[in-house]
Specification:
Its main location: membrane. With 298 residues, the protein is an alpha/beta fold. The protein has ten helices and six strands.
Length: 298
């Protein structure tokens, strides 16, 4: 999904920590990191909640000052079409324009989440995190965390399309967890974390569905200031990109590639088919009520 070239981006909605020391030390080699990445891709990472009990607390991270390069230099939709950090920024802007009005019709307020870009490691309200964790949302500090290098991993390691909506889907999925935090459904992941019909899988699939709802409206939703939408209408190629990303991070596909077999009892995010199904459910309906992944089989 391409941006309207003249749309104005608000870089203040993204905190860029790249290149700055965080003081966080996380153990484990590449094997352990890969395991974490496989288990936590594109979703709410239950292990990060250990930080809520006080474990792993670290000093606050240093941040990149405003106006000194990075995402702070993102100004227009034309830049979002060319630069990944600006595409993330523009997608964040679009999501923050869409969800407040949409949730208001359901009687819900939308406190704007924070967004952090980082490399290697950073500190979150849910404890320390590294690049290997992948994108995640922390409910404790209501912040979505992204290492932009992950988006290349999505293509080279997991076989996703590299198209814009494949990347924007990732951002929208994490914001879907913020919507769940508002609605109160995110807690199901902790009550029943594993298995093909588990609460953990249902939470992830609902976040996929919420990402689809955003995609349904993104090209028609004016900016919060009443300007033209950030994004142009979707093409069939855009939809294929999003479905490619959803498929590439299905539990069954990742397990098959990593171990040669599929173990549904350990699923935490859902199969490739499930993830594609629920993104399409949100996209085709644009209806929050259609994203009830907690009733019946998923």
């Amino acid at each position: 999904m391409s941006f309207n070239e003249g749309s104005q981006l608000d870089s203040s909605q993204v905190e860029d920590r790249r290149g700055m020391s965080t003081g966080v030390k996380v153990g484990g080699g590449i094997g352990g990191g890969l395991l974490i990445l496989v288990l936590s891709l594109l979703g709410f990472n239950p292990s990060l909640l250990d930080g809520l009990t006080g474990a792993g607390e670290q000093p606050p991270a240093q941040t990149q000052p405003a106006g000194q390069g990075g995402a702070s230099q993102c100004r227009t939709g034309a830049q979002a079409n060319q630069q990944l950090d600006c595409r993330i920024t523009g997608t964040v802007n679009s999501l923050n324009s869409f969800w407040p009005d949409y949730l208001r019709q359901y009687g819900k307020q939308y406190p704007r989440p924070k967004t952090v870009l980082f490399t290697q490691r950073t500190q979150s309200g849910c404890g320390p995190a590294t690049t290997e964790v992948g994108p995640f949302y922390c409910p404790a500090d209501r912040t979505a965390y992204f290492d932009p290098g992950f988006f290349q991993e999505l293509v080279t390691r997991f076989g996703s399309s590299g198209g814009p909506l494949a990347q924007e889907y990732v951002v929208a999925h994490e914001f879907g967890h913020h919507v769940q935090n508002i609605l109160g459904t995110i807690d199901y992941a902790q009550r029943d974390p594993q298995g093909p019909q588990s609460g953990g899988v249902r939470v992830e699939l609902q976040a996929d569905c919420f990402a689809g709802i955003w995609a349904h409206y993104a090209s028609t939703q004016p900016t919060s200031s009443g300007g033209q939408p950030f994004l142009k209408p979707l093409s069939q190629s855009d939809i294929r990109d999003a479905l490619s990303a959803a498929s590439s991070v299905g539990d069954d596909r990742i397990q098959k590639a990593a171990t040669g077999r599929v173990s549904p009892e350990s699923w935490t995010h859902g199969s490739s088919a499930q993830r594609q199904k629920w993104f399409l459910t949100g996209y085709q309906s644009g209806d929050l009520n259609k994203c009830d992944t907690f009733s019946g089989r998923v």
